[in-house]
Design brief:
445 residues, ten-stranded mixed beta sheet, five-stranded mixed beta sheet, 23 strands, single chain, 12 helices, Nuclear Transport Factor 2, Chain: A, 2 domains
């Protein structure tokens, strides 16, 4: 593989005697990974299904390698949100950032959603996840992955970090910055990225990284932790960006990242950071820096959304009584025709570009309620009284995912369609037939 001369010289200086090993790694096949959605099943149970030839990713207990040639995106389990396809090294940032249920977490550069879905699973439905991406187009892919995973407590938005900074001072317990970068660590996986590499790009990325770090410094509460990551090797975008930030913010300090699994130390005085090199691990290149904001503080409470009156929710309550076995509780909010169940500690989002405000339950119009695809994905089979559960071998599974009407005897009315007990979407059963309500944009192709 032909590398830019300037880049090759920099890597040779950085790696020294290891440089040839790095070059040799380009001849090695890339690694393919998937990460189990622990909101739906455990990482221990999934391999027992014997669908793929899996081996564990050592730095992520929910992560597994699968073999090239296997097609996990063409499987009903993928459409049931049981796993996310993710490059193995990209699993490391959210794995290293300690997240507990009930916390408020911001993923500030979140699209397409790999790290956000990982965070959402760690929160286990408690607390608040704000997944943001400045690109409205990319945020749409982020939204789908949040909904596919069945994350109930996620807010998806599309704003520059500076706009968020104005609203969320000292608010978040944890922040993840997967910063825009020159992508040097992805050269083996995506060789086309080599063509766009130059010194000007490095300078631009470093400037953007500084701006994002500045915004996030304000939004993190005292005592909170911030994980900064890139998929590049450039010192300017990694240790230099962090060193400059620490020089400006004495209230922050580096938290050591354990050097195991083949992780290497950061360069120079920033040895507490971690570097992932493709010649030392089974994955692509990555950089990680874990920082903590010194001090302690009471939890900041911001003005929240006011819930709807019961009268406005009557069609939903009627649906809930007929279709669900459990009663949903919390703050319900109507935006336009869409009904949402808001997460805990949900502040007012007025004036911000929001794609989703919590768990979208469905639409209210003309005195009736129609459930959404996101509602189906956030439920479990045992929460719904009327279900149709197809085995994997049943051809009706694929037919349903393609949007077809299928035959299925049972009680008429709204029905949660599942495969092997895992929800896929809604249908309306009438006379032994399931009128398909699977999301049009999600259909199997």
């Amino acid at each position: 593989m032909e590398l830019p001369i300037q880049y090759a010289e920099k890597m040779q200086e950085l790696l020294g005697e290891e440089y040839q090993e790095y070059l040799d790694s380009f001849a090695e096949p890339r690694y393919f990974g998937l990460r189990i959605n622990t909101l739906k099943l455990s990482a221990e149970d999934f391999p027992k299904k014997n669908i793929y030839s899996l081996s564990p990713v050592p730095w992520c207990k929910e992560g597994f390698y699968f073999s090239q040639g296997e097609r996990p995106a063409k499987h009903p389990y993928y459409h049931a949100g049981l796993y996310y396809l993710q490059e193995p090294s990209a699993m490391s940032p959210a794995a290293v950032l300690p997240i507990a249920p009930g916390e408020r977490v911001l993923d500030v550069c979140a699209a397409p959603g790999g790290k956000s879905t990982q965070i959402g699973a760690k929160l286990q439905g408690e607390g608040l996840l704000i997944a943001n991406d400045i690109s409205a187009g990319r945020a749409k892919a982020l939204l789908k992955n949040i909904e596919l995973f069945g994350i109930r407590n996620g807010v998806v938005m599309s704003e520059p970090p500076e706009r968020l900074q104005e609203r969320f001072s000292d608010f978040f317990d944890k922040i993840l910055i997967d910063a825009p970068c020159s992508g040097e660590g992805m050269f083996r996986k995506e060789p086309d990225m080599i063509k766009s590499w130059n010194e000007e790009m490095l300078a631009f990325c470093q400037k953007e990284q500084g701006k994002i770090l500045e915004a996030c410094a304000t939004m993190l509460r005292p005592g909170g932790m911030l994980l900064y990551s890139t998929c590049t090797f450039a010192i300017e975008e990694n240790e230099k960006s962090i060193a400059d930030f620490l020089e400006r913010h004495k209230e922050f300090s580096l938290v050591p990242i354990e050097k195991k699994f083949g992780f290497s130390e950061g360069i120079g005085e920033l040895h507490h950071c971690a570097r992932l090199y493709p010649h030392k691990i089974k994955g692509e290149g990555h950089f990680l820096a874990l920082l903590q904001k010194n001090g302690t503080a009471e939890k900041v409470m911001l003005a929240g959304e006011i819930g709807e009156k019961e009268q406005a929710l009557a069609p939903f309550f009627e649906f809930q009584k007929e279709v669900l076995k459990t009663e949903l509780v919390g703050t319900f909010k109507i935006f336009g025709e869409s009904l949402y169940l808001l997460p805990q500690d949900m502040p007012s989002m007025k004036g911000l570009r929001i794609l989703r405000t919590g768990w979208q339950l469905g639409t209210l119009k003309k005195g009736r309620f129609e459930p959404s695809q996101a509602f189906a994905m956030g439920l479990s089979k045992n929460e719904v009284s009327n279900t149709m559960d197809f085995s994997l071998e049943d051809d009706r599974v694929i037919r349903y995912l393609k949007g077809e009407t299928v035959e299925a005897e049972g009680k008429d009315g709204w029905t949660l369609v599942c495969t092997d007990g895992f929800p896929l979407g809604w249908a309306k059963r009438q006379g032994g037939r399931l009128k398909n309500k699977y999301a049009v944009g999600w259909k199997w192709e």
